[in-house]
Amino acid sequence: MNKRKIINDPVYGFISISNDFIFDLIQHRYFQRLRNILQLGLTNLVYPGASHTRFQHSLGAMHLMQEALEVLRYKDIIITKEEEEATLAAILLHDIGHGPFSHTLEHTLIKSVSHETLTDLFLEALNREFKGKLSLAIQIYNDTYHKHFLHQLVSGQLDVDRLDYLTRDSFFTGVSEGVIGTERIIKMLNVVDNELVADIKALYSIEKFIISRRLMYWQVYLHKTVHAIETMLIQGLKRAKTLVSQGNDLFLPPSLRIFFEKDIEAEDFLSNEELLNAYADLDDRDIWYCLKMWRSHSDFVLSELSKRVYYRNLFKIEVMENEIETSYIQNIKAQTASFFNLSTEDVSYFVIHGKMENRAYNKALPPIRILDKNGNLHPLENLSDHLNHRTLSEIVNKYFICYPKHII
Q1: Domain ranges across the chain
Q2: Nearest to 80, CA basis, from 13, 6, 119, 136
Q3: Which of 93, 315, 316, 384 has the fewest other C-beta atoms within 10 Å?
């Protein structure tokens, strides 16, 4: 069988799969499920073009990794064929632990298990199936391999994951603020003392990358209407879980029912191999079909939330710079409870408040380092006036409250 394939990607053009093992990983059922998990969750209900998937993003990140490794080799950085294959496998599989709607339901379906933990479980399962061929990839992914710069390409403040998702998400949403100089940044990558660095010629492109990341968070990832939709979906699933725990009859696909009937911990996946296969069977379509079925459920809270998400009849959301006063929240809850004839407990499904956080560049993490023309290294923030501004290097908090539109 010919496993050397070319994929036509709308963002980069042709992406080459020139390695048989990488092709086998792409063909695996665990990876193919990413075709049915949207990269941006429910964002396509605000930006209709944002229907790209984790599958596309993973292939795009792999493509950028191929280019980055080629650039480093050209600069006489030694990277063996085995290391290349392992690094490509690590970035290809870096998001394999995501569940339905990506980040949206991460701590709703399985409360205490992150997608990173699930990625680790998938990597170990695949490594057993492929008889140890992913061992080096797992070391690079977990940063236990001695060539630290390979891990930084997979996961760092200037990794190919971020480069692809900003470029791809900007392309599919049509939000031009996310356009970055991906090709220039990759061409300027280098390695010094086993650390990934960037030549000083990339300084302005990296500044643009960080500014674009901040803008994309406010304009796309934390867009207030997207946040309202995600909040409504989460409340609907929480209600469904509560009904199941109370013994109510509720339509659920078999694989999804497992995660509704019991609070799953990370240890449960280690003691029960079938749990991982059940999780791998879940994607966005399961949740949409549940919402479709729950629209006619006898429980008012579940049916109302399901109909509102399904038909995009959204809650109003207010976003404020300061914490919302308790009296204001209580007033909205009282009006909502009266309008829908809800109990004090049930009104919490319809009035939701909380905090949104945005930090484009984290100074607490290992910094992006810039190599000047004299061979000296500098932390990015020492060379960039922009990064001294609080909106780029510090956490910016905004506070929100969601509730049915016609209450106030």
Answers
A1: 5-223, 227-356+401-407
A2: 136
A3: 316
Tokens at 45, concatenated:
């209900």
Rg (alpha carbons) of the chain, rounded to whole number:
23
- pTM score over 0.85: yes
End-to-end CA gap in the chain: 63
**Fold topology of 5-223:** Hypothetical protein af1432 (1.10.3210)
Beta strands in 270-383 (DSSP E): 316-320, 352-358, 369-371, 377-379
CATH tag, 227-356+401-407: 1.20.1250.30
Nearest in space to 353 (alpha carbons), one of 235, 211, 205: 235
pLDDT at 390: 57
39 token code pair:
């990269």
Listed in sequence order, the DSSP H helices in 143-272 are 148-154, 160-173, 182-187, 203-216, 224-245, 254-261, 266-271
Note the pLDDT of residue 105: 85
Amino acid identity of 116?
E
Single out the residue of 169, 160, 215, 163 nearest to residue 51, CA to CA.
169
- At residue 224, the pLDDT reads 95
Q: What would the pLDDT profile of 167-181 be if each residue is shown by its tens digit?
A: 999 999 999 988 999
Residue 352's nearest CA partner among 314, 322, 321 is 314
Across the chain, mean pLDDT equals: 93
The answer for 101, left when phi > 0, alpha when psi is -120 to 50, beta otherwise, is left
| Dihedrals phi, psi of 323, to nearest 5 degrees | -60, 140
Cα separation, 146 vs 5, in Å, equals 31
